[in-house]
Write a structure and sequence with these properties.
alpha/beta; Lysozyme-like; five-stranded mixed beta sheet; 9 strands; disordered N terminus
Length: 265
């Protein structure tokens, strides 16, 4: 006659496994990841956990995006010219400073109408497809979006024949020949996109950049690689008096102000 054996009790491994499974289901519990129980033993073995992938670092010297008035504020849709889609470059590495060669005595409240007249002249008499400058700055320091395509993108402008690619054109509204006062608010406003746009590419506004001429009607033959300051005056790339003698002498101060906005000083 067989003697009935004792019933087998629960395995000591089952509570351990249940506990580990429970802990692993709780949010925020990370201690369970490196501990796995080996079947048939009460010992734990460590398991390597992959390290977190670091997030890409932001450019070390990017500047804040300035406040920019959109082109919808100044563009009259009733007289808007038909234009092709915007063209883009991969990035902006330099800025060219211009003046608009227009009257200086405007009220800042009238700046949208001033830009509208500039747009009409460039798309009418000159037959351009859009206003050439990426940004325009009035004497009160307000920055306006110029050429279409989005201020956050590297829009190819039509502001400096031969050097429109990978650059942005910033126009000071007015005429600034030698001895003409240039308001501090205006030069500060020019410095803001000068710091912001090239800063996204890691460019120091106190340095120089290599640009390739695309048109022999510029100061340099087509295909020539040229080292130019960033920012530069319009006349650094093209035979012109623009941006005028007064803003030209302020370019060193604009470069320093832009570097300060990038946190370099």
């Amino acid at each position: 006659m067989r003697v009935a054996g004792r019933a087998r009790g629960p395995s000591p491994e089952r509570p351990r496994r249940a506990l580990v499974a429970l802990l692993c289901c709780l949010p925020g519990v990370v201690a369970c990841a490196p501990l796995l129980y080996v079947s048939g033993s009460g010992r734990s073995t460590s398991v390597s956990v992959p390290a977190a992938v670091p997030r890409p670092a932001a450019p070390a010297h990017d500047a804040p995006r300035p406040r920019i008035v959109p082109r919808s504020v100044w563009l009259d849709v009733t007289v808007r010219q038909a234009q092709p889609p915007p063209r883009y470059d991969d990035k902006v590495v330099a800025v060219f400073v211009h003046h608009t060669d227009s009257p200086n005595g405007y009220a800042c409240a009238d700046t949208p109408s001033v830009i509208r007249r500039l747009y009409a002249g460039q798309t009418g008499a000159r037959a351009w497809d859009d206003i050439g400058y990426n940004f325009l700055v009035d004497r009160c320091g307000t920055i306006y979006e110029g050429r279409a395509g989005g201020v956050d993108r590297a829009v190819t402008g039509a502001h400096n024949q031969g050097f429109n690619h990978r650059t942005a054109g910033i126009a000071a509204i007015g005429t600034f020949t030698a001895g003409t006062p240039v308001p501090r608010a205006m030069t500060d406003a020019v410095a803001a996109p000068t710091a912001w746009k090239p800063g996204l590419a890691g460019v120091d506004p106190r340095g120089s950049v290599s640009l390739v001429s695309s048109n022999s009607q510029s100061r340099y033959a087509s295909g020539a690689t040229v080292l130019l300051p960033a920012p530069a005056g319009h006349r650094d790339g093209f035979r012109t008096n623009c941006p005028g003698a007064a803003p030209t002498v302020r370019l060193p101060a604009i470069r320093e102000a832009a570097a300060h906005l990038q946190g370099r000083t």
